[in-house]
Design brief:
The protein is an alpha/beta fold. It folds into 4 domains: 101 residues, Beta-Lactamase (2-Layer Sandwich), CATH 3.30.450; 198 residues, Rossmann fold (3-Layer(aba) Sandwich); 78 residues, Rossmann fold (3-Layer(aba) Sandwich), CATH 3.40.50; 72 residues, 2-Layer Sandwich (Ribosomal Protein S8, Chain: A, domain 1), CATH 3.30.1370.50. It is built from 18 helices and 27 strands. Strand 6 and strand 7 form a beta hairpin. Helix 16 runs parallel beside helix 18. It holds the Pfam family R3H.
Length: 590
């Protein structure tokens, strides 16, 4: 017999492998060809069930068939669910289907040889199969038209999305394009035989790509490393990266210069950041301490999260719908923005009615702001040497790390100069009692500290600041700003705290909180303060008239003085005891 030349033989075999499918033509994003081998899936079902779907009007939309012992068999479509029979599923029906599929692996999955269908089993405590989920596998050619330019770029791509959105289908098509159209050496790590089908011969949908099967799911990371060491691939395709060992193996492969195409559990990049098992895919997260100047420059707190390494995948694709994908062209930049409380601006790629790809940059939604103080997950701040220093790994307190992560992604509130809230104040010659009362009553994000090393600012009286060289020297050594108030009164303290927090000064029309000016909260004190408040708000401010109050004791008159000062007015005491009383003036006398 005459021998065919090797090149002609390879070409003939390649054409034969493609012949059962649709012709390999150049497809745009809107042009897709589908092959599902659905008849072979229906053949494993008991005859009455398979016959009911042979000519079903929604056959092309069938997602899966569910057979649960003692329940009616179901066919689940994209938009509806229908019963296939009026007789519950029996053990004999389950055994009929099990006998016609391949062996179930350690993850309770099996397949049908030379097809992409997946059969998953439900077992009881004794290991007996009591339910089957028969999922339809389809090879869709042209499904990656929206990101074909990214596939050809040579960068590693990570696909994210909810179950059933088409991640595995896109993965299979990317492997075919890389192997057939770009002529690259592609190896698929097929844990459940879902990408290349069941059996020893891979499904033609993967083209010239090679497939490595995994004996047990827990060995996937070892097979990934074996593929690189033994078979010299240019591209490795991995489905469902779900463990820390698999994420570490993926990083090892990427560092060897191999292009990675993979999927992971999660809808968005934020899900990976919050998942300690898979965070390494986007670079890993670590807690660091910023110096004061860096915190002010960034406008953030001093304790923040940072990306600790380059991401394993340079590009991430969030598959929202079949024809609507969000593309992060620079995963490192997107992760950095998210960790700083900002919203990245990825590309949104859709397919128009004429089949063309439409790329837009939707405006990012503003991050939600905190509505109350202090935040529930706030941590105490500390001062450092001014250098950024990563904490030791591994982190022992995962709860604190998780709280810090939530605070970072939720754009935490900071002070006007970038200080982390709550603001730590070191009082110098200021009434600690008045400070505590003001903070507690107004619910301000402020903490009084006795340790100047823990402070963010020094609060003192103006009179002490003028001639107190010791205080100035202390502030200079610890690099602390000093804020002064005119008097040790409640009104001045409240005004100083509002100024430190960047809050608007109280306007004359604001209603004062009387509990601020009454330490004991007795009825006599509150009644006298209410009298002064009404006099100010009802007569002095709107009418510009002076008002005399009822005679009060010296202690109560002092409280009234502070309340009147809150309204930026002045008052004088006149008369003799026990009839000495206050007179409130509409403006300060010149």
């Amino acid at each position: 017999m005459r021998r065919l030349p090797q090149r002609l033989l390879l070409s003939t075999l390649s054409n034969l492998s493609r012949r059962p499918l649709h012709p390999m033509v150049e497809l745009t994003a809107g042009q897709r060809q589908v092959t599902d081998d659905l008849d072979q899936l229906l053949a494993i079902l008991p005859p009455p069930l398979g016959y009911s779907l042979t000519d079903h009007p929604q056959r092309e939309e069938l997602l899966e068939i569910v057979l649960d012992l003692g329940r009616l068999p179901e066919a689940r479509f994209m938009q509806s669910t229908q019963y296939l029979a009026e007789t519950p599923v029996s053990r004999e029906m389950l055994q009929y289907a099990v006998a016609r599929v391949g062996e179930f692996s350690g993850d309770n999955r099996a397949g049908i040889e030379r097809t992409l269908h997946r059969i998953s089993a439900l077992r009881n405590r004794q290991g007996t199969i009591i339910g089957l989920t028969c999922r339809v596998g389809r090879a869709v050619f042209g499904t990656i038209g929206m990101i074909r330019d990214l596939v050809e770029s040579g960068q590693s791509i990570l696909l994210l999305g909810r179950p059933g959105v088409g991640k595995t289908t896109a993965l299979r098509e990317m492997a075919r394009v890389l192997a057939d159209d770009l002529r690259k050496r592609v190896v698929i790590i097929d844990t459940s035989n879902e990408i290349a089908g069941d059996g020893d011969i891979p499904h033609p949908a993967i083209g010239r790509a090679r497939r490595m099967q995994v004996a047990r799911p827990e060995l996937q990371h070892q097979v990934m490393i074996e593929a690189v060491e033994n078979h010299m691939p240019q591209v490795i395709v991995i489905d469902e990266i779900g463990t820390e060992l698999e994420a570490l193996a993926a990083r090892t492969i990427a560092e060897r210069g191999v292009q990675l195409i993979g999927t992971a559990h999660g809808n968005q990049i934020e899900n990976l950041i919050k998942n300690p098992t898979l965070a390494d895919l986007v670079g890993g997260i670590q807690s660091v301490t910023l110096g004061d100047e860096e915190a002010r420059r960034r406008g953030t707190q001093k304790s923040v999260l940072e990306r600790k390494a380059p991401p394993t995948f340079q590009i991430a694709v969030e598959m929202l719908e079949r024809d609507r994908w969000v593309v992060h062209l620079d995963v490192a930049e997107s992760v950095d923005l998210l960790l700083r409380g900002r919203v990245p601006s990825p590309e949104l790629r859709t397919v128009a009615e004429n089949g063309t790809v439409v790329v837009t940059h939707p405006a990012p939604e503003p991050s939600p702001q905190r509505s109350e103080w202090p935040p529930a997950n706030v941590r105490s701040s500390w001062r450092d040497s001014g250098q950024m220093q990563p904490l030791g790994e591994p982190l022992r307190d995962r709860a604190n790390f998780a709280q810090l992560l939530e605070a970072t992604l939720d754009a935490p509130t900071v002070g006007p100069n970038g200080e982390e809230l709550p603001l730590h104040i070191f009082p110098y010659a200021v009434s600690r009692h008045h400070l505590e009362q003001a903070i507690h009553t107004l619910h301000l994000p402020v903490v009084i500290t006795r340790d100047i090393d823990q402070a963010d600012v020094i609060l003192t009286l103006r009179s002490h600041l003028k001639g107190e060289s010791k205080l100035r020297h202390l502030a200079h050594i610890h690099h602390l700003p000093v804020h002064s108030i005119k008097a040790n009164s409640m009104a001045q303290i409240v005004r100083g705290l509002r100024h430190l927090l960047g809050m608007e000064d109280t306007s004359p029309t604001d209603t004062a909180d009387l509990s601020l000016f009454s330490p004991s909260g007795s009825n006599d004190e509150l009644e006298a303060l209410e009298e002064a408040r009404l006099a100010v708000e009802e007569i002095v401010l709107p009418k510009g008239q002076a008002v005399e109050l009822l005679p009060r004791s010296a202690n109560i008159r002092r409280m009234q003085h502070e309340l009147i000062e809150h309204y930026q007015l002045t008052a004088c005491s006149f008369g003799e005891e026990p009839n000495r009383r206050l007179r409130i003036y509409p403006s300060r006398p010149h």
